[in-house]
Design brief:
mainly alpha; rod-shaped
């Protein structure tokens, strides 16, 4: 199995995720506004659920944004780890090439 990823993939993904946090809050507010004409048309459990959603919209937004923030932190950590691993691999290769005796591998005299 081969895993090939560009050096900027995770940082680009992080930028996209960061912008999604703002978008998510706006979408929840738009959902509440769009559902406003339905207010008063529910009875029983439907009304209770709708009212609870409206009352907790800010908490729901904060929880979702917190989750997105954790995802963003994970992406940042992975980006750091991949960058560090890439640099260490290069450093190790350079060090080993410097210590190698390439003349001993030649078959000509």
């Amino acid at each position: 199995m081969k895993f090939d990823m560009g050096s900027t993939t995770l940082s680009t993904l992080g930028k996209s995720t960061s912008g999604s946090s703002d978008d998510l809050g706006a979408l929840i507010q738009q959902l509440i506004a769009a559902a406003q004409p339905l207010e008063g048309k529910f009875n029983g459990e439907g009304k209770a659920t709708f009212d609870a959603f409206k009352a907790n919209a800010d908490d729901i937004t904060a929880a979702l944004n917190g989750s997105l923030s954790s995802i963003l932190g994970g992406q940042s950590g992975m980006d750091t780890a991949f960058g560090t691993g890439d640099q260490e691999q290069s450093d190790n290769a350079q060090q080993n090439m410097g210590a190698a005796n390439f003349d001993a591998a030649r078959f000509s005299g």
